[in-house]
Amino acid sequence: MSTPDLTAFVKAYDVRGLVGSQLTPEVVEALAAGFVDELGAAGSPVIVGHDMRDSSPEFAAAFARGASARGAEVVSIGLCSTDETYFASGFLDAPAAMFTASHNPASYNGIKFSRAGAQGISLGTGLAAIRDRAQAYLASGGVPSVEQPGGVVVRDVLADYAAHLRSLVDLSGIRPLRVVVDAGNGMGGMTVPAVLGTAAGLPELPLEIIPLYFELDGTFPNHEANPLEPENLVDLQRAVVAHGADLGLAFDGDADRCFVVDETGAPVTPSAVAAIVARREVARVRAAGETGDVFVIHNLITSRFVPESITAAGAIPVRTNVGHSLIKDRMRETDAVFGGEHSAHYYFRDFWGADNGMLAAMHLLAEFGGQDAPLSAFASAYDPYALSGEINSVVEDVPAAYTRIVEAFARRGDFDELDGLTVTGHPERGFWWFNVRPSNTEPLLRLNVEADTAEQMAIVRDEVLALIRA
């Protein structure tokens, strides 16, 4: 049997591959061994958790074998969300591995690695070395055991996780809210009843949760667990209207991202959620006595209103590239209190700088539930501009497309290349900007546009798309 090329599915920030042809128990054992060796974790605890995919328990067991063979003391937390693994990594101050392919179809699985304290690992900060160590183990026939291999203990952290989130956001005093939650047959079906309900033994909140697809099922029988795609929000939108709910929440497969719809079923942009949470987090730390500079991170694809609201709250916005491991690093470098991405990843200093969609949802519920307006009116104040959303185009010759865009907009805007190409219109011609970024893994260009009016946004969007697709 040939040795698989791990470079094909060890990605920039995680491992993501096809079950059987790429990810196998032997590959997972080798990656676990490489992880323990690279982090020097022999004799120390290493956490492993997994989602509800059919292949996940077998892979988690294979990881435990590989890690313990190299001397780690494995702490198995079993079925969990990705942010629950981050909690365990921070709470126990130990490195962790989470088996999930997030929103990918059932034929995929993957691994999200963390250093102790939920610190991210990317290709540039250790993942490439883990990959290369694993590749060497596979080439040599398997993982050798150290003289003193580690053991495996089982620990349930769901109740601790739920209690920790409740300690960060108090929802006990909000007005009663009816909330439809679409878990997409993913891990939100387990974490929502624990955090927002009473399944973990916590007091009842003034929330009526109407569940949609809470049954854990890694085949995703109802729709893909990817709320970023509009077709996967349709069931939630219909249910919110049918039940006369105040809002709807949709979680992705591993429940680390959360999307919001208002009482009419219209999506609330992740940028609006980021602006709401940023304002709350800045106010919280100021009330707690922080007097120095307070930093809040946003990636360059979020609405311009996000940095505007951060500044208005008396904090300093920090603009970054797209990418969760990079943002985790910037959270630590700046000691930022919060970070938000256009893709509905939300990062919290009080959660070890890691992302947590549930915590963002709780902040939204607290802020919205503390006033009387419907969500459509409440959220509109945080969404004053027109956003295109991300539009993908298949492009074989990316440099040629870039050249066309640069030539067309050379005298009409300012350019920067923090991540891809961003062009910001000259102020005298009205507010607009667009960003074009190449995909790391596919022949795609990703376009995002924002303007002060929907009409202006459409004009810029259509012109840039024509240049991209010429």
What is the C-alpha radius of gyration, as a whole number of Å?
Answer: 22 Å
User: How many E-type strands?
Assistant: 22
The CATH homologous superfamily of the largest domain is called Alpha-D-Glucose-1,6-Bisphosphate, subunit A, domain 3
CATH architecture of the largest domain: 3-Layer(aba) Sandwich
Sheet with the most strands, sense and barrel status: 7 strands, mixed
CATH T-level topology of the largest domain: Alpha-D-Glucose-1,6-Bisphosphate, Chain A, domain 3
What is the strand content? 15-25%
Overall pLDDT metric:
96
Briefly note the structural class of the backbone.
alpha/beta
Number of helices in the DSSP assignment: 14
Helical content stands at 25-40%
N-to-C span: 45 Å
| CATH level 1 class label of the largest domain | Alpha Beta
Overall domain count: 4
Cofactor: Mg(2+)
Protein name: Phosphomannomutase/phosphoglucomutase
GO molecular function: intramolecular phosphotransferase activity; metal ion binding
GO biological process, one term: carbohydrate metabolic process
